[in-house]
Specification:
By secondary structure, the protein is α+β, with helices and mostly antiparallel strands. It has 3 domains: 54 residues, Structural Genomics Hypothetical 15.5 Kd Protein In mrcA-pckA Intergenic Region, Chain A (Roll), CATH 3.10.290.10; 90 residues, Pseudouridine synthase I, catalytic domain, N-terminal subdomain (Alpha-Beta Plaits, 2-Layer Sandwich); 80 residues, Pseudouridine synthase (2-Layer Sandwich). It is built from 7 helices and 18 strands. Belongs to the pseudouridine synthase RsuA family.
């Protein structure tokens, strides 16, 4: 195994030269910036035959040979971003040791390096964004950029407009703190069920189900219809489409890229 080096082209002595290694790996589709930092600190990256474990190391991808786990890193200047409509009983992962359906079963092997930006729980449906652009993924998933997400929830019981207003105005207190909806509107209802459209920025796990469950309106069906400017539209369950350059630019603008 090559010796570890921690001073090769570091940020301290070459601040104006090259590109940070973790950014290069993210651009090459190895995951979010944080994931790429883990790859580096785990000792899986070599530059010109030398093991590099120092975050902030700057390299020139055009003139230097970068390897991850022994394989050459190819910089991807032409990223792909997908919109996928996840059906119920599909895991928001790329593989499952138990053999359950995953996102990979929907997109196949055409886009080898794409990964999902966020998740939907097993029984929820709707829009998931996927990309091979680690920089974009990092921004979309980071709480700092507060990407709004829209859901259509069908809940048990007849939910009144006063409840919707309270969820927006004061919110509810859950085990992990207070949370409010940005918007809440009733779309349809009968004696047994109410269909509501909700918008919120929180990315906490199962947050919509937890909000309504905490006030006595269990969610029977949940569909995510929009993430930032990207809409689910007419995309059929179990299918996907490639976002247009205009859509990608609108998403990048939304998250400060």
């Amino acid at each position: 195994m090559p010796e570890q080096h921690s001073t090769m082209n570091t940020e301290d002595n070459t601040a104006s030269e090259g590109i940070r290694l973790q950014k290069i790996l993210a651009q090459a589709g190895y995951g979010s910036r944080r994931k790429c930092e883990e790859i580096i600190t785990e000792g899986r990256v070599e530059v010109d035959g030398e093991l590099v474990t120092t975050l902030g190391t700057r390299v020139d991808p055009k003139s230097q040979k970068i390897l991850v786990d022994g394989s050459r890193v190819h910089i991807n200047d032409h990223h792909v971003t997908l919109a996928l409509n996840k059906p119920k009983r599909v895991l928001s992962t790329m593989s499952d040791p138990k053999g359950r359906w995953t996102l990979r079963d929907i997109i196949g092997d055409k886009y080898e390096r794409v990964f999902h930006m966020g998740r939907l729980d097993y029984d929820s449906e709707g829009l998931i964004l996927m990309t091979d652009d680690g920089e974009l993924s990092q921004h979309v998933m980071h709480p700092k950029y507060e990407v709004a997400k829209t859901y259509i929830a069908t809940v048990e019981g007849r939910l009144g407009g006063n409840v919707c207003r309270r969820l927006v105005r004061t919110g509810v207190k859950l085990d992990d703190g207070w949370v409010k909806l940005d918007k809440c509107s009733i779309l349809d209802q009968n004696r047994e069920y109410t269909m509501v459209r909700v918008v919120l920025h929180s990315g906490r796990n199962r947050i919509v189900r937890r909000i309504f469950g905490s006030i006595g309106f269990p969610v029977k069906r949940l569909v995510r219809t929009q993430i930032g400017p990207i809409k689910l539209g007419e995309l059929k369950p179990g299918s996907y489409r490639v976002l247009s350059p205009v859509e990608v630019k609108s998403l990048e603008k939304e998250v400060g890229l």
